[in-house]
Design brief:
The protein has about 375 residues and is an alpha/beta fold. Helix content is about 30%, strand content about 25%. A 6-stranded mixed beta sheet has the order 3-2-1-4-11-12. Helix 2 packs across helix 7 and helix 4 crosses helix 5.
């Protein structure tokens, strides 16, 4: 079969809803909307949407020979970052810099705030490597790998299987990072993010933050991609990256997935607006878990470094402002004030109005109003 004789699928998997748009072999467009989580009905919303459109029963294998490609945007990584629900992560960094990422750049988002609230760190533990390479590549102190091994084994035994390795001047001289990666791999760490591969640029803090984000989120993405690929063996699978371009699943990493879903939203908004002869836009994309706002004035606006959820991320991405406030954002009272989010009811149990015992959310306020 040629690709013209096969189905095409475009999927937006959000924290609460999953939308599937498909083009059949005869060229007609069909759409489905499902809860992203509905464990009594299906294991995965995207796969179930594909089965529904192909008239296949739940759990039955998906015929790869009938599908040309599946292209996805997902907020799995975005929501995990906003809600701090990534994998347990270990930071390995040059001795003397264990607090460098906590100290950060000393920026004050609220200049006159007397009580500065720092964002929750993504990494759980820190291991310092007694090593140093200067900016010209001269080895001032070789790393003590034997001492490092026992520390890595201790944290691995405690259940931490993701590690971010950030060595001073590692972006230019990666030998030490590569040696640490080999050691971590032998111990059994399943996610190893190296700063010279993740963000091979100067500035220790943003390079370190980006590497930690990659280690923190990649395991979640890998588990999801493995699930998709096992169910659709042989089907080309692509994911929207934060910068607005597509990547094959094999090259899709946590650092590229922060704005995967929102990036698809602004690309789609621009295409629709162009058909109406408009090229000056404000995109407002409110979902169940998060809300994304973007600006467009004739060309896509991208930034090389972004601050999202208190984390500096140094990879090309759309200039989109994301806040943890959507229809499923949980309303809470801490004894002195009401608060919206950042936690979300998601799709399961969802808002109280879904009838599944969920908490009070923005959606429930809208129902009452």
């Amino acid at each position: 079969m040629n690709n013209e004789d096969k189905w095409q699928f475009w999927i937006d998997r959000g924290g609460t809803f999953t939308d599937i748009v498909a083009q059949s072999p005869v060229g007609d467009i069909q759409a489905r909307k499902l809860l992203s989580e509905n464990p009594e009905q299906y294991d995965d919303a995207a796969l179930q949407g594909i089965r529904n459109l192909l008239n296949i029963s739940t759990g039955d294998p998906i015929p790869a020979d009938k599908i040309a490609a599946v292209k996805m945007g997902t907020t799995v990584a975005t929501n995990a970052l906003l809600e701090r629900k990534g994998d347990r992560t270990l930071l390995v960094i040059t001795k003397g810099f264990r607090d460098a990422l906590r100290v950060g750049y000393q920026n004050r988002p609220d200049l006159f705030a007397l009580d500065v609230k720092l964002a929750e760190l993504l990494y759980e533990k820190v291991v310092e490597v007694d090593e140093r390479i200067d900016s010209q590549g001269n080895i001032l102190k070789a790393p003590d790998l034997s001492a490092l091994k026992s520390q890595l084994e201790e944290h691995f035994t405690s259940g931490i299987h993701a590690v971010a390795v950030v060595i001073m001047h590692g972006y230019r001289y990666p030998d030490t990072e590569l040696k640490i990666a080999e050691l971590a791999r032998k111990i059994g760490f399943t996610q190893i993010s190296l700063s010279h591969q993740t963000s091979p640029l100067m500035k220790l803090v943003s390079r370190g933050d980006t590497t930690v984000v990659d280690a923190y989120l990649s395991p979640i993405l890998n588990r999801y991609m493995d699930q998709m690929q096992k169910a659709m063996k042989g089907v080309p699978l692509y994911f929207m990256q934060s910068g607005g371009g597509l990547s094959s699943a094999a090259y899709f990493k946590g650092k590229d997935a922060i704005l995967s879903g929102p990036a698809g939203g602004i690309v789609g908004a621009v295409k629709v607006a162009a058909q109406a002869g408009l090229d000056k836009l404000i995109g407002f994309d409110m979902g169940g878990t998060s809300t994304d706002v973007a600006h467009y004035n004739g060309e896509y606006e991208r930034s090389g470094e972004t601050l999202l959820a208190g984390v500096h991320i140094k990879v090309p991405m759309m200039n989109i402002h994301t806040v943890a406030a959507g229809g499923g954002s949980i309303l809470s009272f801490d004894g002195s004030r009401f608060q919206v989010g950042p936690d979300s009811a998601g799709a399961n149990p969802g808002p109280a109005g879904y009838g599944r015992g969920g908490p009070l959310t923005v959606t429930d306020c809208n129902i009452l109003l």
